[in-house]
Amino acid sequence: MKKVISSALIVFVSWCLTAPTFGQGQGISLNKIIGKVDNYYVLRSDLEESSQSYVGQNQTPPAKCQLLESLIINKMMLAKAEIDSVVVEEKIVDSELDSRMQYMVQQFGSDKNIVEAYGKSLEMLKSELRTQVKDQKIVQKMQQKITTDVKVTPRDVRKFYDGIPKDSLPYIPAEVEVGQIVRFAKPTKEQKEVLREKLLDIKKRVENGEDFAKLAKENSEDVGSAEKGGDLGFAKRGMMVAPFEGAALRLKPNQISDVVESDFGLHLIQLLEIRGAEYHARHVLLRPDYNRLDLTAPTRYLDSLRNLIQIDSLKFDKAAHDYSEDKNTADAGGLLRDAQSGSSRMAMDGSMEYAMFQMLDTMKVGSISAPLPYRTEDGKSSVRLLYFKSKVAPHAADFTKDFEKLQTIVLQNKKNRAIDDWFKKSIADVYITVDPEFHSCRIFGTTQGSAASLSGGSN
């Protein structure tokens, strides 16, 4: 039997990395309070959503007691952060909130679809999401504070590996190295002209006395800033994409730009203020309908590149570096990396992007796919080539071959112990209650009610 290396606290780390969800019309009877840490509550819906987050990633959820413990840990982090005055800057929360809202728009297609799906206004959804985002950021900051001095040496990894019985070594699933070359579908001149004319009309209306902020709120497709009248706040030079920043800094305060095109779409920019190395601007953003873009040109482009690579006139990594429009992978020769470990070896299992998994399953190592339609994380229509660079068969963990993974396990185990020690020292600083339904759970390694800081009672 293969050994499973895990901890209740690993669920805590997973919570920090999981995108938040919104409750949809849940009444109080369906959202019972099942735990409390000072003034922070754990709801039954929190427990269900935590379990569903694993199902959504094709993983088996931990036991209910383990999930509950991890949720209480999260609330204790928040309570202790309040006691210790650990805060997260609002602009960090704003940035993450904007990113999450943009992602939702890409997934649902429009603001209207989001409102219909949840039965709530965008303002209400943003308010709920903001609370979740802020809590996650605070918990992450507390975790970093607790584990900042945790380090792992090669000797630690060797000791861990040698301590595992050979018949219980962790099982490593099949892993692959994959490269990609991406080319975006471009909007036609006609599509851009329609957006350009709309922005020029907005500019004219502002010049005739209408409020820029009101028009931005009504028209801008940058969901995060639209609710604030297009206001982007102060930005340091170099933070924004070059076309936007260049246009903004050529303006005088309160002046409005001509239409500016960037990777995000078409902008109408108003500079509000320059303060040292920072500038304050707002904008209206319009984007083409990515679902209607023609993939013919990027498909032909990649087909030509593929032919050159196959006859060995061009190496894949060189082609990716010079011609891929995916900035995240081009500099690495197109090589994709695991989001959590940063390793170029990715598990070929249910955690992999489904379309990629399906394609690799039909390819041989060393081969390159035909051009494939692809939707980027930020919603852009594109085409890509996949290069099946290498594959490692499923195997029991090997110290040399899997050192990186073993090191990650050892580091996480050390961090879990550091957090566990922190809880044992800090548990007396907060008041924790758990619903009688879960009294059989051994929260923090002790049966509910047996520790002085734990008390039963219904909520």
Automatic annotation (TrEMBL):
Pfam families: Rotamase, Rotamase_3
Gene3D superfamilies: 3.10.50.40, Porin chaperone SurA, peptide-binding domain
InterPro entries with a match to the protein in the record: OMP_Chaperone_SurA (IPR050280), PPIase_dom_sf (IPR046357), PPIase_PpiC (IPR000297), PPIase_PpiC_CS (IPR023058), Trigger_fact/SurA_dom_sf (IPR027304)
Gene Ontology molecular function terms on file: peptidyl-prolyl cis-trans isomerase activity
EC assignment: 5.2.1.8
Broad EC category: isomerase
Domain PpiC: 173-273, 276-387
Domain of life: Bacteria
Keywords: Isomerase, Rotamase, Signal
Signal peptide segment: 1-19
Entry keyword annotation includes Signal: yes
PANTHER family: CHAPERONE SURA (PTHR47637:SF1)
Name of the protein this chain belongs to: Peptidylprolyl isomerase
